[in-house]
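User: Fold this; tokens only.

Assistant: Input:
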Amino acid sequence: CIRDRIYWKRGLYFHITIDRSIPRDQSLLGKACHLENRRRHTKYLKAELEAAAIYKILAANEDNENSRGIFEELSESELGHARKWAVKLDMDESIVAPRAPAWKLFFYTMAVRLFGTKSVVSWLVRFETKEVDEYLSDPEAAELVQDERRHLKILNQLVNDNDVILGIRERGYGGIAEGGRLRAAVLGVNDGLVSNLSLIHIS
């Protein structure tokens, strides 16, 4: 929010200073800030509730007991994040529950049944990565970044089965724009494997 504004009207300059000690809702600028905050908090709340609903679908369709427990834990964690944004929006956090558009729930349910949970988890990796990046740029969400990074690590482990590329990804991941380093590392691993196989073949 900008503190000072200078206006020109009928040949005269008018200098207006906004006193920050005045409650936000008593100024147009304060109202604009309030509306922007509500829009952002509502966006975060919607995303967390959708994530919780999707993890519930994964849990309901997972045969492996350990994986099912992980999905249920992730769903509860996302609900915890959602409650934070619900409080910011003056909502009753006790009524917060997993929620998503019916078409999206149907889509994920069918995807899980057709392709399995592992395929859907690989899609969610992108979603969690985007969420981490958004939260990193917002001071109000700073306390949730570690949780979201943990979610991302868990999903990567489920998808990659703790392979060597996963280890490289986890060491190189910093939250923003690490794709170049990851690609370089993966290419390095591939080159090394090719070289070793060539030596074995020659010998």
